[in-house]
């Protein structure tokens, strides 16, 4: 969004409603910045792609907005579904079902997305297409009603029982219409983030911003089912290899926010247990369900025979890892154990990881970002190691920093890539690629435009783009195929990496 004429406006998402909500703005749950004042990628994509080219980038990840393709409900297009004990295990979407969906689709938006992807292809980018990055159509999620009723009335979005099937229809339609252009698919971006921030945080920044553990469980289980169903229909309807080098017409993955979790006191059982809870819920629950077939239905961290679904095993062809910082955790006695069956209740310790004061220092003496996130580059290798146990190809799909003055970003980039480079050279990990977040400044959800993640600065008034110094650093690293020693030395000094805590 952000074009002066408003042609690119899409008011049909839950997030559009959420950031315009008067209560949210008055209570500072959201920034008050509005997406219609954004960078207008919709019209200026060629300029952004050319800038990406000039840096030396060769891969580009984007997603198709569900509500742009289907601004109106798709509930009336009925498809075949089978279940085992309440978990969906088969879906039948036919060509005639896709024809019915086609009647509901916004063809102009469809054509425009094809133009965007074609421009990337003509510039020799490898395109990764993601299906959902947080936002949902308003007809599938009414965040204000959900908040007001504590998820008793909806539509309830990720927690809505209709969610897995509706998502599968969307995935099938997109696979049919874009399979000739892309081979690498992602179903969701950061599913753990939307469920935790939406359903485990009172007055949370993400819609619907409530604490409802039952709705949280439903949302997680729905996402596992939605991915499973989409995995099948994408492979069914994408039969064309877009790139001659691809092993298959469709490789279906998920983009996962991975947060290494450490106990505050490594010898205290409650802290160790709490750290284990954070890892299980945030990092492991999703891949456990779609790789190992273990859907932890009661969220008690214990694998029981009734929770293993054979059909869900191996339904992940690759995984994207988004890494920003760590978590340091302490455990509290869990008085809610009959309802929330954790061995200890986790509390994120202030002063570490994501729980720091912006533009200061963490308790470990590390600089913090404009967002208040501790710069902890060691964790990126740990994040990859945590996921390599799932035995699927891995890629870093996000890694970046809110840094409006570009003070730390050049060093952040260099040191994270250096840690990865060393780990690859030492055969500790394998990676298929690294994508930085982000190419340009962006609308950072509830925090609006004040968090600047771009290698390229965008003036929101003129929409003019300008490279930051960090873009030149990234460009040199790409050109040399390694992180120059002088970059590493400078990064260690600026980021105060002498500390091992």
UniProtKB/TrEMBL annotation:
The keyword rRNA processing does not apply. Keywords: Glycosidase, Hydrolase. It holds the Pfam family Glyco_hydro_1. One of its GO terms (molecular function) is beta-glucosidase activity. InterPro entries: Beta-galactosidase, GH, Glyco_hydro_1. GO terms for biological process: carbohydrate metabolic process. Belongs to the glycosyl hydrolase 1 family. This is Glycoside hydrolase family 1 protein.
